[in-house]
Each structure stands twice: as structure tokens, then as C-alpha cells.
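Checklist before submission:
- one chain only
- standard amino acids only
- sequence pasted in full

Submission:
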Amino acid sequence: MNEFDLKKLRIRRKQECDLNNIDRDALKKILSKSFPECFSDRIFYKQLPTMRLMAFYEKRLIGQVGIDHRVISVDKAPYQIFGIVDLCVTREFRNRGIGATLLTTLENLANQCKVNHVLAFANRQELYQKLEYHQVKANCRFLAIEDLSSHSVIERDESKTLLIKSAVDNDFTDKAIDLLGHLF
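Returned file contents:
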């Protein structure tokens, strides 16, 4: 591979319904390599995202992030959010700013759409913290989905994994967060 040039990176936004077979095949490949325990022959884990940002370098898909656009309830008040789904970059292109570029593009889109909060559930949080996402102490309620089947509503402490970046001053700490759907 030649010297990597971030200026040659192209980010494309695609609605899930606009993906073609080439897109789907490329997504299967990158997702199964990035999350081998979750993905095998499909492009979603629990549910399809609303849309995706796809990172291409020299016409090759090297990164992606799904976006779940939904309303959640925080202490029974509605908040429009973007949920970050399956952020990944192929191994050979990691640590080159691609993940940060995908997240920054997502945040800019949230701003354009008047969505004030971006949420992620992540075990590896270094990138998010560099981009000023904050861990939030919160109990979350969500629909449990396993093997393409809804089976219960779960309520549990997600303080170790929940990260939020807000464009407005709303503190979700110690509030009851209902995702009004599955965990993304």
C-alpha cells in the first residue's frame, strides 16, 4: 500500500434502503472481520441502522459507522438522538484518523439535523474520550433481542459503557434512560 493520505478518504452517507449488493458484500466483509463474534453473513447485529457513513479509500471500503436515529426517553422527556452502531475500521487502516473522521462527520450530520445528542455504548472508549464524549452514570431500559427474537425488556446499569456527546447542556447523569428499543 502506498503512503496513506487522509485527504483521499471519501465519506459517503447511505440510507440502509439505498445499499446495493456491492455495498452489502463490502459491509459483510468489514463487519465480520471487525466483530467476528457478532457478524457472520449479515450486515446488522440486532437491527438495521437508519443509515451509515461509509469510509472509502481508493474505492475500497475501509471503515463504517451505523447511525440509529431515534427518540429516547430521559426521565420521561423525549430526546432525539443519533445512536452510534458498529463503528469499525479495517485493521491495516487503524490509528490514521479514520474513526475520528467518521465520528466527526456523524456529529456534523447530527448538528445539521438538529439532533443534539449522540450516544454510544462502547467497551473501548479511548477514541470517544479524545473527541469529548463523556461517560454517563445511568440505568438504561431497552428491548432485548437475541438470535432475531425479542425476548424481554431489560433495565440495568450501563455506566461503564454509555458515552454521550451533547450539543446542548443536558445532563443525563443519574436519570432513567429508556432507549425505546434495542441497545445499539
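Reviewer check: Strands lie at 9-15, 51-57, 60-74, 77-89, 117-121, 134-135, 139-146, 149-157, 162-166, 176-182.
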